[in-house]
Amino acid sequence: MDGLVNNNAFIIQAIYDKFAPKVINYIKQNSGDADNAQDIIQDTIITIYNQGSQKGLQLTCPFDAYFFCFVNVNGLMF
Questions:
Q1: Are the CB atoms for 71 and 23 separated by under 8 Å?
Q2: Which of 29, 41, 42, 75 is most open to solvent, judged by the fewest CB atoms within 10 Å of its CB?
């Protein structure tokens, strides 16, 4: 969380590399496409960044569970 809030490019890329394939697969299985998935990934990262930087979010669950919670919510809107 600190790496994301501090805008650490290495951490942001690592988050993307870890989660993008899963998100793209999930969105494609639910009638979306790769472009939808890219938008959802970007929206999710921005939302978590904003919560951490503006609201001082401290996670009480694993980051991946929190990330996919937003993917599920944002995925419902495409």
A1: yes
A2: 29
Q: For residue range 43-60, what is the model confidence (pLDDT) as tens digits? A: 999 999 999 998 888 889
Q: Are 32 and 78 in contact (CB under 8 A)?
A: yes
* Contact status, residue 70 vs residue 48, Cβ threshold 8 Å: yes
Of residues 75, 71, 78, the one with CA closest to residue 18: 71
Q: In the chain, what's the furthest Cα-to-Cα distance?
A: 35
- pTM of this prediction? 0.83
Alpha-carbon span 78 to 67, nearest angstrom: 17
Spatial separation of the C-alpha atoms in residues 59 and 77, rounded to whole Å: 25
